[in-house]
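fyi for ur records
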Amino acid sequence: MKSIICGAGDVGYSIADKLSKENFEVIVIDESKEKLKKISDNLDVKTVLGAPSLPSTLFNASAKEYDILIAVTKSDETNMICCQIGHTLFGIPKKIARIRQQDYLKGEWQNLYSSKNLPIDDIISPEEEVAKALYRRIKSPGTIDMLELANNRIKLVGIKCEANSKVLGKTLRKLSEEFKNYLANILFVFRGEEKFIVNSSTILKKDDLIYMVVDNSNFFEIVKEFGHYEMQAQKIVILGGGNIGYSLAREIETSEYKIATNIIENNKLRSEFLATNLKSANVTNADGLESSILEEVDVSEADYFIAVTNDDEVNILSSLLAKRAGTEHCITLINNSSYSSLLNNIGIDITIDPKLITISKILEKVKGGLIRSDYTIAEGFGEVIEAEILPNSQFANKNINQINLSKSIRVGAILRKDEIIIPNSETIFKENDDVVFFSETKSIKKLEELLSLK
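which gave:
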């Protein structure tokens, strides 16, 4: 597969890195010599200097030879033009664009995106995807991360092993014997700076962050076994009424959960927009770094304080103030990845990186076909992949031992018709099974080869 990436920013760089490691032929286009030099120095990809939306630039990149165009420049309009020119002049089959401006995404304008109008096959809205990720965490108390898979029958959850957890000091083999009635499977562990796929002899320790797949019907029982007894959120405070804060508030308003929502927004005009367009949220026009404002919105009573301004430092400081005031949990939006590893040590519970979420969605769209979901974990470590077993693939009618699956790949769960199966080495994969895998980055290409038709 050959991919053109328009835009060499953080997202463009990361996508180029991942695709090149999976043996995609990649070319990156950007107007910045410095960004392209960074890519050339560190990645095995080609680069072209120039405006990505110009026909001559795409021509110089040999665009006619490419299968996919991924437009992730800073400009929505540039991204749309790249897709249009890639389609009209060069016949690129698949076009993916990052679009931030919410007006382009309104339902009444959706017919704009078609082969006869604007030929964009997949649109990624980072703000909407982040809002959905935040909402998933709010409705899954006790988790650090959560993703719904297999037609919402299976949850991928990240959860911390608390001191009162019943799983500490036991091997996974022992845990599977003790909790054999639970449909759950631990995939990998973050232990301090260490990240590793588990095996049957792995022993869980206090403060381990584990990722596992679990049947929806066992979710609440499982999180209790890890020492989490949090109740469903009743009140949240959102700092920042931009696209993310607004989209999150709308998610909550239209959900089945009755969660009291307060938004703090510093811009007066934006505050008026929020108050006009949200039915139940309380909007406060003020500076969220003022302790008196946090007291005014009763932040001490909030189950979650969610800081989603476009300023990392404001998000971090306000989260610390909210935590000190008594907020149960803080979720902090961080655009600068270098901050993330520092924040758990200073009291911030959960960080969310919009770049990783955007990359996950783009990779999911790039791979398409038999790949139903693709979720990037801790940039550079690996991906959770949900895929269908095709009739003539290496998996069909074989077990793990017969496939000789790498130890850097772990099978999490199988949805077969309406049944959830936690597999072992003897489990036979059947045609049309919906399977959740975790693969370290180095083995993703091999896994996709095994899943493909012979």
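The domain at 358-451 is CATH 3.30.70.1450 (Alpha-Beta Plaits). thats all i got for now
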